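DATA SHEET
Item: assembly model
Revision: 1
Owner: S.N.
Input lines:
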Amino acid sequence: MRTSTELQADGAGSAGRQPPAILVRGLVKRFDEVEAVRGVDFEVAPGEVFGFLGPNGAGKTTTINMLCTLAKPTAGEARVAGYDVVRERDDVRRNIGLVFQDQTLDSYMTGAQNLRLHAELYGLQKDLVAPRMRQVLEMVGLWERKDSPVGTYSGGMRRRLEIARGMMHSPRVLFLDEPTIGLDPQTRRSIWNYIAELREREEITIFMTTHYMDEAEWCDRIAIMDHGEIVALDAPQTLKAEVGTDRVSIQTDDNAAAISALADRFGIEARVADGAVTFGVPGGEEFVPRLFAELDVPIQGVSVSRPTLDDVFMSYTGSTIRDAEEGDPGKYRSRMMMQMIHGGRR
Amino acid sequence: MSTTTTTPETAAAPRAPVVKVSVPEHSLASELRAIRIVWRRDLIRFLNDRIRIASALVQPLLFLFVMGSGLEHVTTTHGVSFKTFIYPGILCIAVMFTAMFSAASLVWDREFGFMREMMVAPIRRSSIVIGKCFGGATVASLQGVLMILLAPLVGVPYDLLLILGIFGLQLLLAFTVTAFGVMVGARIKQMQSFFGVMQMIVMPMFFISGALFPAAGLPRWLEILNRIDPLTYAVGPMRSLVFSHLSMSETARQTLDPGITWWGWRVPPLLQAGVVLALGLVMLGVAVWEFTTTE
């Protein structure tokens, strides 16, 4: 396990010497037989966008629930905004905003009513409610629709309203649990634009989970979680650089011959993926001319790609994130169990 | 309290400054506020839902006028109209059904997510439960007022003290029934299951309570069931209260309102009401406990 716990110096902006926004030490959560989170450690600097990446059932939501004081840790310690999640629960809650996977809006009420109820629930000062509401609603582009019942909102609008609501009380840390799950690509992009703007405007630390690799790119740092453990933690670029190899895939008439020729001549272990012979190699672009010159098998086409987070994920967990979600019945079972415990999410 | 700190925007100049609010520290005021919010939300929902108000009237009206008129000629009620006789019981069940529906909104909120918004707010879960029980009690009593208005139709004259008394009893019953519903609903995650369970519990409670018959001279098994049915202790005082404002023969009074007895001892109506209150408080306690121990 390669876990860098030191605070990131760049990218997070004015982190300085401030205490970490989130500090987690040896956090464990056990549900009867299942150990959903098995001792994780990390720190998130103020102003950072920190992502938890992993397949469903990896323990991301359980970790978030512990950080948000919705679940009690079995062991270990966690501090959010400087407060202990068990002993100073109310102080943690005052300082965090939450956007869940499942919608938690009252669809009978209008957008504005939902925000007003939130303001009241958190005891915000009355004369600040209206201007703050306008600000957060404008930020997510819902000011014009504020008086429509939430029931008439689209999925993307609801998510935006939830983000606005999560920001309503100026939290120091905003938790986003799969903020774009179930949304179409265009809406996902717009949600990310809102989050980017939010980050630019407000002094806020963002902690999010996702199982979309492309979204993890938005984070300053990501932790890859698998089977309840953090298997890697760093900036996305660093993680990709650590994979070290570019992905080369070639189309040939005879894949089997190409694979054995690659093994004989270059000592490269290749395999067939999507009908093309694929392998990893450092400095892929420089390697291609050698490949054409020295490989006996005729090549029809070639493509070289930089490592993606998918490759990173694969190198740490041995499977793609999709396979990890589909292939492991044990994990699926434990996920079902967690759903039962957390009250069935659809 | 919150402070107005408007931080100057450094990046884009034309933007308005960020309105920064802060959440006050947790205090008793936070909890009272939370109770009020939950309570008010129930009330607003109820008042906005005319169909629900109307539909909740159907069942008691059926019992009162259809069954009441139908059975009038085959029951001996010593000169008192059968409708008048069952009126106090109907006052109770009208409230009971509405209170149950109110408790159901808790399960609804959980199934459709809104509960989480309240669960992560800087408030105790007990406040949510208490607010809910107050909300259910208020809403159901309002519904009960509609039934009180029908009094002259079944030969019960309007009387301020009587109306206040009925309202008070209905409020008490509604509170207890809501607490019961919340207690049952605390661990149920789906509306359908909740209504299934409720149907299984509410209908027997209603039939056994003596809302439709006097709770004396019953077969032994029914008498035992009747005495352990909480609703009995709401119907009992309600009937005594309504009958005390009516003139009828002594025979009629003794037959129709024999009172509730425990091993031959006649339980005073006030104590019966006390039983309802005590049960309500115990169930509220259980509901709070359930809510604070689930994750």
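QC remark: Residues 1-13 of chain B have pLDDT under 50 and may be disordered.
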